[in-house]
Amino acid sequence: MVLENINSPEDVKKLSLEELNLLSGEMREALLHRLSNHGGHFGPNFGMVEATIALHYVFNSPEDKIVFDVSHQSYPHKMLTGRKEAYLDPEKYDDVSGYSEPSESAHDHFVIGHTSTSVSLAGGLAKGRDLKGEKGNVIAVIGDGSLSGGEAFEGLDYAGELDTNFIIVVNDNQMSIAENHGGLYRNLQELRESQGTCPCNFFKAMGLDYLYVDQGNDIGSLISAFQKVKDIDHPVVVHINTLKGKGYRPAEEHKEPWHYCAPFDIATGEPKHKSDDGEDYGTLTADYLLAKMKEDRRVVGITAGTPTIMGFTEDRRLAAGRQFVDVGIAEEHAVALASGIAKAGGKPVFGVCSSFIQRAYDQLSQDLCINNNPATLLVFWGSLSTMNDVTHLCFFDIPLISNIPNMVYLAPTCKEEYFAMLEWSLRQDSHPVAIRVPALGLTHADREIATDYSELNRYEMVKKGTKVALLALGSFFPLGESVAHILKEKVGIEATLVNPRYITGTDDTLLDTLKTDHALVATLEDGIQDGGFGEKIARYYGTSPMKVLNFGARKEFVDRFDVAAFLRDNHLTAEQITEDILAQL
Amino acid sequence: MVLENINSPEDVKKLSLEELNLLSGEMREALLHRLSNHGGHFGPNFGMVEATIALHYVFNSPEDKIVFDVSHQSYPHKMLTGRKEAYLDPEKYDDVSGYSEPSESAHDHFVIGHTSTSVSLAGGLAKGRDLKGEKGNVIAVIGDGSLSGGEAFEGLDYAGELDTNFIIVVNDNQMSIAENHGGLYRNLQELRESQGTCPCNFFKAMGLDYLYVDQGNDIGSLISAFQKVKDIDHPVVVHINTLKGKGYRPAEEHKEPWHYCAPFDIATGEPKHKSDDGEDYGTLTADYLLAKMKEDRRVVGITAGTPTIMGFTEDRRLAAGRQFVDVGIAEEHAVALASGIAKAGGKPVFGVCSSFIQRAYDQLSQDLCINNNPATLLVFWGSLSTMNDVTHLCFFDIPLISNIPNMVYLAPTCKEEYFAMLEWSLRQDSHPVAIRVPALGLTHADREIATDYSELNRYEMVKKGTKVALLALGSFFPLGESVAHILKEKVGIEATLVNPRYITGTDDTLLDTLKTDHALVATLEDGIQDGGFGEKIARYYGTSPMKVLNFGARKEFVDRFDVAAFLRDNHLTAEQITEDILAQL
User: Fold this and answer.
1) Which residues form the Transketolase-like pyrimidine-binding domain (chains A, B) (predicted)?
2) Burial degree of A278 (CB within 10 A; 0-12, 13-18, 19+)
3) Domain that holds residue B507
4) Is B192 on the interface with A (CB under 8 A)?
5) Do A128 and A25 belong to one domain?
6) Residues of B with CB below 8 A from A129's CB?
């Protein structure tokens, strides 16, 4: 076995082309095993095996610095840079993250998980190198849909003016997570079809030198191309034509579902653990919107390269036709587009996961909220308990969104309330509305749900009690119910339970009412405390004798945490919250 | 006078070419008068007079919808759409804003002030039109440096896939605010030099049809071009070559200083009101950094198209050489670049105004703070009292920046403290550091200033008193001093005065100490309350008997406000703050 002897890129350089080819087969075999047992990014890594081997054959990492965009395609890189055991030994699968990680290896330079950042980050490495008078190649590897993000373009535009060594490998696998979108991808096609010779060339138009490699999964071709650009004294793009998912037929044939996989059976490609096929908020959302679209041609769904987050699988996208738009990974454009559509009288609904809406703060503020256009934003997975990679945390959306004037950010507590709010949002034309889609599983209301939310910042008094009031926001409403239950069982306190519904403001009347027969208000939010909902309540009661306890997570970046332990560590179990409350009474 | 009879675009259409040319002269004359008396954006408007006339001659606004990027070039548009009096009658100068404004006219579709948004917003108008089955042209007017922002690229990429009417006028005046930067601008030059015929064409590479107009200040040429693309059934770029500042020699010759002007003498071009030539934080910063650069080649200044905000006038840019980088209007790239440079051992300092740092939240979080690289960010003009156009408000940076983990956001109170903090930031390599540069004029310390800020979240006890503690942040420190003074004069209270220094955390020890002999803590911050510094203090004291009053502005968008009235309305004068405090004792 060749791979067994690869402890660093130095070992790659000693191999013959035949051995390199053997190595690529062994690496795919190891990836297949690991992914079938453990899950992870499939297509991006299978497509990049040969290019990664060739990069390490030609360049001298870590003196030469390779920056992988999104870095979900960096598994082969990790296998060749001293971390192969994490791909060969099931016991060690969790020794590595799914993204590049400087704490693991000197061959990784940044923690990266969002797209379109590599050219800019690598540009910084090149500038730092030059300022210090050092040598070495700097290589950004970008592709797989990442080119459509504005930051990538800003980086390419900057690179086009450099007069120093800078190499950009464009991994053109003709895909994003779903199919690619945007006029640029037609130029990539023209370039592929003309073997890189067509005169109208996006990269050259950006001031970059250019080299095309048609056989982007052929080690020999790649080595030869990388050797040509090694130690180059100006910026150059190496455009490589690769096959996403290469080497495993189901992944080659069905690229979108095989972008990322759960554990699966290698023979059939079927998932090992059947999902429960129950309802989920994504599918329910898509079906709801499809029905709306039929009734009203002004309704249009928008995604930024992640259509299935909002349930728009390929069949549903087809059913929606021109009433569904995938703008590619371009959240800034998605928000501005939604604002424009709303201004023109359309009914846009942009579905996006909490971690990615961060990419469009200025558009939320300027393009949408200053203009006060009635677009709807669905923020999925906003919770402490969803994605747990440090680059994909979903608990900063409340401080991000809720402190923007004019925005109405709603926190439904269950399925019925979510759809009542979405229905209202589509009906009204006075506000930009964001809805934090419940993230902790489907729950149902056992009470009547309001249909009109136009009187802003009116919290729902679900149960009137005394002494302690629980303001349990959105996904944390069931947690509030649990705390109320324990308070009653344990010490006989009939706590007041409030569903705040509105993240973006305080219900002063209700908060004042609580002053008469409550000693303590506890806020519960499924996000960080800093800049969040609870702090607004603490401010409100600042000069009153009312005690306020804010429950939420500390402001910190955490990585691959155990959710239960993380919640405990932040005092967020029902028992801990109850204890903390009782300690104050 | 032709202009006197122009009450709507209909009146433009009735004119002969000769009259249109007369009109352009009269418009320039009116602009010159207004700007020389009132100040405003000069170069962008002088360059766009003819194109605006031609747009309104050919298209039927407001059925045909024109969206101006940044919209600081929309003065001629306003003159032709029923608002000419605001340019002719000095009494009415303030009837219009400096940007497009739907509340003024049906010919304006969005409030716009940040760059690079027009293509996306107009794309939304086109999509809304098509969803509703309506007709009409949609035209985005972009240029003057705006193309380099990522959002513009995302919009162009989207546009490249459309199969519907969509017209993008690229106003190529070869400038941004300062000179243009980025590889793309070389392609624009090639296009100009080849009369639009060179085969490598950025816009065509994005999938867009293309038309070049060499004489972009010639009404006849422009009318002919716009007539060609009117009612087109696919997306097209009309690339017009214009002269920024055309018609006023000083502005043609010195484009950067004439981008925006204060009132000036028409004969000489000299400003009417001499600035006091005193020290300002921009100039002091540039001079400090220039000295640092000489000592240490790793120090590099970065701007995103607004170099003079941090004092880097043309001469200072020349002096800095390769140690100063203007990335063009591309804040996302600027932040990621700074992170990369810091990772490589450089000492990057990115200077940016508060309103524009909003454009890079995800880069601050992902590229910089998750990676914890020691870059320095200087946030200028962060205050309620600086820019007062609704699109340029500078009071959201505290909630934006201070709730990101790992970031150290510092609030110096005076010149000496600012430079001590900057010095420390350049010296340390443990944290990304942002400094909120004081914005209310130069003040000096009459106390010793710390030189080391590495022990985080240690507030400075400036004066120990009893009963009332004032936590007066950054620019509002002098306000805290005034309140303390009044409290003593009026009721004999010796208030405690604290300089928090760190916006990003609480000094628990100091806050606990206050509990022993204080009844009330007041926080003073020069920004909005929501998500800000004061709320963290309110949360901290949530279960203590300590009363907390947070002073700051309400969360709202305000436009062209009178600063003094705005501060009063938010209870932010020293007298009001004192009263509010006394009412609680």
Assistant:
1) 279-445
2) exposed
3) 460-584
4) no
5) yes
6) 344
